[in-house]
Structure formats: C-alpha cells, structure tokens
Amino acid sequence: MERRQAAEATPASSARSRRAPGPDERRRDPERTRERILDAALTEFAARGYAGARVNEIAERAGVNKQLISYYFGGKEGLYRAIASSWRRQETEASTEQQRMTLAELVTSYLPRSAHQRSLVRLLFWDGLMPAGGDPGGEERGSRMREAVADLERRQRDGELADDIDPGCFLLAFMAAASAPAALPHLTRSITGLEPDSPEFLERYAEQLGRMVRHLAKD
C-alpha cells in the first residue's frame, strides 16, 4: 500500500519540479540565441569577408536553424549591420574615457588585444577589398571616422599634435599600425619572433607605438 501511494505521488511531484520558465528566463533565451548568432557571424565574416560569408555556415556555427537568422536579423546584411552597431556602441561607451587619455594612450588603446577585437579588425580589412559602395557599413563607418578626425583636430589645437601633421593622415597611419598585428600575424611573427597575441608582444608593441606618437607631439 505504501509503495503504491509513493508511486502515485511521483507524477505529481515530477510535474511540480518541471515548472514553466518565468518571464525573465523566456527573455534571456532569445538574447542568448542572438548573441550566439552574432558571435558565429563575426567569426564567419572575419574568415571569409562579407561577400564570401554563407548564412548556412553561420547557422551551423551558432547551432541554430537558418530561419532564426532571418527572424532575428532579416538575413546576412542585417547580421552585418548588427555587428557594426555593436562595435559602434562599444566605441561610444569608451569615448568618455578616451577623452581623458593622452594621444599616445588613445592610439595604443586601439591595439586589438582580444580574439573578438582581432576578428573585428580582420573584418575591417575584408571590407576594404569590396567594391566602392558595396560595404553595408560604409556610411556608419564614415561618420565614425569624421568624428575621430575632429577629435584629433581638437587635440592638435590643444598642443598634443604638431601643426605640420595632417590629422586625417595621422589617423589612417596609426589605425593601420594598431591593426597590423591582427591583420598580418605571419609578418608579426617573422619580424619580432613573437606571437601577435602574446602579452610580451602586446606590451612591447604598445610601448613602441606610444613612443612614436610622442615624437609627433609639439615640442
């Protein structure tokens, strides 16, 4: 009798243990799915460029159905724009702190130190191979670059940059310098004998970039 009562009680107790997810949990699941898709898309775009990336590969990397990508982002271009917007938000959040940095500190802060940042740099270089007007994020990037040049012009007026240095050319040169280890890891190894993502290399390279920038400041 006792065993039968225990057996009869088991389904009820199991039903109680299998509660429905709460509203917060239901909200988090789509957010986690979106993040997995965006991470997979960044990896795919960085490896193949926008033109070569395949939505099927992104879905497989993320472990989701291809239709979910269309549902959340509307397709490949929407994914690309979402990545660009995420990058823009990160830069906006960092802008207040960057205003307090010296010019040398600002330049070295762009040195990509994480795998995520290195993927963004590789994607940027892939975008440079696209025909003019074929880059979905080109307009937004142009706005960011104009803001960066305006900030350098302000710093030049404040005496951080010599008068005979063109701020736009300075920005282009040091963006390329900061991006070089991520974009050209094989050359980095050949020239320095170090892995481009090793702490030893990153510390040494950041110090040297800062030294170069300080040489371009006003006397």
Automatic annotation (TrEMBL):
Keywords linked to the UniProt accession: DNA-binding
Instruction: Tell me which residues form the DNA-binding region.
Output: 54-73
Q: Which InterPro entries match?
A: Homeodomain-like_sf (IPR009057), HTH-type_TetR-like_transc_reg (IPR050109), HTH_TetR (IPR001647), Sco4008_C (IPR041467), Tet_transcr_reg_TetR-rel_C_sf (IPR036271)
UniProt xrefs under Pfam families: TetR_C_21, TetR_N
> Where are the compositionally biased (Basic and acidic residues) regions?
21-33
Identification of the protein by name: TetR family transcriptional regulator
Q: Which GO terms describe its molecular function?
A: DNA binding
Statement: the UniProt record of this protein carries the keyword Membrane: no
| GO biological process per UniProt | regulation of DNA-templated transcription
Q: Where is this region: Disordered?
A: 1-33
Q: Does the keyword Hydrolase apply?
A: no
Which organism is the protein's source? Thermasporomyces composti
Domain HTH tetR-type: where? Answer: 31-91
Source organism phylogeny: Bacteria, Bacillati, Actinomycetota, Actinomycetes, Propionibacteriales
